[in-house]
């Protein structure tokens, strides 16, 4: 059932992670999927096995394509891990549980990068292939990686999240490339023109906070704050899932 006719209006969504994907999936069931323009965190992006991997872009794409493994919350449904079983013999990065279908996406993306396509252009191509009706937009085309300094060393967010399961304390964050990150063309206009802007229940530091670090996005949102709605991922001081509460107890702010 459609809540309202959105033929001339659209929602702008700021998103990152599994929680955002689940929220967007629900929203797409009550408004036209075509009315959703989704700016996605790319601070989790990482290069492994020589491949360019964009976890949050993929989670949201697979979810809206109705291909995601809902039990895990990431990756493809009915996935196999034959390639990973051999990759573990070659690389000390077997902690990244990339399935065979998921690896195909990473191979395709890496190939397009080598051909000179931007991250936004590649994302659009992947969405078209999977017939995703919403517009999914990376927060920037430039390289932007969130690294965490911990007592056992500095590491990319994905390694902290998956390999170490968020157990080490975080001393500080390093948002590599944030000083060169610019909004994808059209995003600032979307902020001005959107009927409503919704901030998903994503991690305030490493999902939403990274988007806000992209030049001019935070200032543009402040100018239209009357139409910005944020959904907290924290309930009674605790997150439903993920390390957001742990991060927020520190001195870290976007």
TrEMBL record:
<dbReference type="GO" id="GO:0000287">
    <property type="term" value="F:magnesium ion binding"/>
</dbReference>
<keyword id="KW-0460">Magnesium</keyword>
<dbReference type="GO" id="GO:0043743">
    <property type="term" value="F:LPPG:FO 2-phospho-L-lactate transferase activity"/>
</dbReference>
<dbReference type="InterPro" id="IPR010115">
    <property type="entry name" value="FbiA/CofD"/>
</dbReference>
<dbReference type="InterPro" id="IPR038136">
    <property type="entry name" value="CofD-like_dom_sf"/>
</dbReference>
<keyword id="KW-0808">Transferase</keyword>
<protein>
    <recommendedName>
        <fullName>2-phospho-L-lactate transferase</fullName>
    </recommendedName>
</protein>
<dbReference type="Pfam" id="PF01933">
    <property type="entry name" value="CofD"/>
</dbReference>
<dbReference type="InterPro" id="IPR002882">
    <property type="entry name" value="CofD"/>
</dbReference>
């Amino acid at each position: 059932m459609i809540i309202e006719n959105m033929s001339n209006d659209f929602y702008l969504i700021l998103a990152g992670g599994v929680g955002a994907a689940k929220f967007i999936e629900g929203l797409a069931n009550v408004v036209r999927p075509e009315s959703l323009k989704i700016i996605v965190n790319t601070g989790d992006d990482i290069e492994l096995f020589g491949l360019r991997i964009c976890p949050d872009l993929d989670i949201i794409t697979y979810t809206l394509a109705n291909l995601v493994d809902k039990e895990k919350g990431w990756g493809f449904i009915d996935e196999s891990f034959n390639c990973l079983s051999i990759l573990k013999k070659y690389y000390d990065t077997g902690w990244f549980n990339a399935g065979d279908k998921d690896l195909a996406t990473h191979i395709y993306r890496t190939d397009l990068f080598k051909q000179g396509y931007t991250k936004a252009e590649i994302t659009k191509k992947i969405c078209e292939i999977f017939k995703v009706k919403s517009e999914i937009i990376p927060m920037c085309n430039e390289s932007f990686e969130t690294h965490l300094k911990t007592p056992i060393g500095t590491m990319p967010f994905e390694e902290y999240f998956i390999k170490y399961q968020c157990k080490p304390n975080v001393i500080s964050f390093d948002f590599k490339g944030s000083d060169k990150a610019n909004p994808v063309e059209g995003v600032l206009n979307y902020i001005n023109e959107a009927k409503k802007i919704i901030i998903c229940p994503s991690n305030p530091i490493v999902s939403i906070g990274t988007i806000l670090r992209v030049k001019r996005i935070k200032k543009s949102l402040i100018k239209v704050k009357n139409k910005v709605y944020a959904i907290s991922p924290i309930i009674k001081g605790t997150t439903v899932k993920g390390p957001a509460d742990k991060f927020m107890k520190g001195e870290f702010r976007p």
